[in-house]
């Protein structure tokens, strides 16, 4: 896959992702894994944001379907 423009997430979305990661870590421990779907309700009511996060997850960072919440939080903070 060619190197494409890196997708950046807006600060409000970053805060939401950090909060969800922290909640999952607090509930299930440091080894808890999640997919990018963890940041959305079980309905497609915001497809643009879903695609933005999917692009960040899949193309920008080339992550597997499930990743540790600690890793996702670290990537979000570094972005």
TrEMBL record:
This is Msl2237 protein. It comes from Acinetobacter lanii. InterPro entries: DUF6500.
